[in-house]
Amino acid sequence: MIRFEAASKTYPDGTIAVDALDLVAPSGQITVLVGPSGCGKTTSLRMINRMIDATGGRILLDDQDIGKVEPAELRRGIGYVIQHAGLFPHRTIIDNIASVPIMLGRKKKQARADAMELLERVGLDQKFAHRYPVQLSGGQQQRVGVARALAADPPVMLMDEPFSAVDPVVREQLQDEFLRLQGELGKTIVFVTHDIDEAIKLGDQVAVLRVGGRLAQMATPAELLSN
Ligand code: ADP
Ligand code: ADP
């Protein structure tokens, strides 16, 4: 479980991006952060893996104050998926996926075998394994991004608009596959989007933020639909 306790972030120029946010992201569930551009979604997400450190309050991961955990150690348990996949351009797909486990000490052969399995799980044919990212479509690259984040089998996944840069048809496929995968894996997921329909489709619960970095509403998709 991830818990924000009055967590805040004020940037050095004085911008209050996140303002005393109280939020719980339960284990095994998808918590969506939704709201307009600039409301602090990305900042909130990056505070969880300490790419950005909070300037006030604290964030707990399974009751441990993440401010007291080394960022590198923290990130071993936290996968991170961004909008444009962020794949290493000079590595093949299979090596992109296997890179983190290898870095963590897993044997190359085993890591590559695991990566092959992950390719299938995210709905990509194994023929893509030895291609380079530029040879894949945007939607396919996003699948690889998800596979790479899953490769270290982290209990927590942070996802920042992972499906926003692809066309609507592919987006829907990716969302459906993501839900199917999460049904099997049961990760603790914090998912950022500006798209309320996506939030309602994917979230077990939805945190609606407003500009200024405050929580406007915490609701289930059903509650949001009835409003
Ligand atoms: P969102 O993800 O909801 O679009 P962000 O978390 O990216 O929002 O940004 C929240 C606010 O913080 C915005 O006003 C943004 O301009 C500001 N901001 C983001 N990064 C920085 C930064 N490095 N320095 C100053 N202000 C920033
Ligand atoms: P999608 O509908 O999934 O976004 P695209 O229409 O972009 O897919 O691509 C269709 C097919 O063309 C895919 O199988 C993809 O792997 C292939 N493809 C796209 N770009 C390249 C490229 N630069 N080199 C080789 N194959 C490519």
UniProtKB/TrEMBL annotation:
* Glycosyltransferase in keyword set: no
* EC number(s) stated in the UniProt entry for this protein: 7.6.2.9
Top-level EC class as recorded in UniProt: translocase
Listed A to Z, the keywords are: ATP-binding, Nucleotide-binding, Transport
Molecular-function annotations in GO: ABC-type quaternary ammonium compound transporting activity; ATP binding; ATP hydrolysis activity
The family annotation for this protein states:
Belongs to the ABC transporter superfamily.
UniProt-recorded name of the protein:
ABC-type quaternary amine transporter
Taxonomic source organism: Aeromicrobium ginsengisoli
